[in-house]
Amino acid sequence: MRSYLERMDQATYLGPAPSTAPVRVLGALRDRMMNLAAELADGAHPYNVPPEHTAHAREVLGADKLLAPEVAVTLERDATKARELGRVHLAIYMNLPNYTKQPARSWLQRRRLCRWWQAIGSSMRWSGGAASSALPRW
């Protein structure tokens, strides 16, 4: 990725000059990509992460970089339905290598992955006055 970004910076651009410099934000989940975003980009866009990840990402990026995490929400007021919506939303990620490849190396890491998914599910919030007891119990 570093090489790609460096070559992108050196590439000849033949289109009309933009009125402002384009903003470069990298999709980043782990520290290595976050560090690259801090060094060669304007910020990072972590996707599908719990709030604790956002706090850590801010530490890695520093205060002067853009941090735009994806935050999944539902307006469903019924806690059971909201949990099911959350499970459906998160299900596809369980098979994507960028979310699973590192933790899947051992049974212990697999347990950590399950806890990570539980943390994401548990960090979901619902509007409409849903009490904290309505948070998912995965």
Could you characterize what this model shows?
- The structure is a single chain.
- The protein has 138 residues and is mostly helical.
- The chain has two domains: 66 residues, no CATH class; 56 residues, no CATH class.
- The chain is 46% helix and 4% strand.
- The protein has six helices and three strands, in the order H-E-H-E-H-E-H-H-H.
- It has a three-stranded parallel beta sheet, covered by helices on one side.
- Strand 2, helix 3 and strand 3 form a beta-alpha-beta unit.
- The C terminus is likely disordered.
Give short descriptive properties of this protein.
mainly alpha; single chain; about 140 residues; three-stranded parallel beta sheet; 2 domains
Record the SSE blueprint.
Elements: H1 2-10, E1 25-26, H2 31-40, E2 43-44, H3 51-61, E3 66-67, H4 79-91, H5 97-100, H6 107-123
Summarize model confidence as the mean pLDDT: 78
What is the total tally of β strands? 3
Helix/strand structural class: mainly alpha
Main sheet attributes: strand count, strand direction, barrel closure:
3 strands, parallel
Helix count from the secondary structure assignment: 6
> Order of strands in the sheet with the most strands?
1-2-3
In whole angstroms, the N-to-C terminal distance is 35 Å
- General form: elongated
Helix content: 40-55%
Low-confidence stretches: 102-108, 126-138
Proportion of residues in extended strands:
under 5%
| Total of domains | 2
- Radius of gyration (Å): 18 Å
Secondary-structure element sequence? HEHEHEHHH
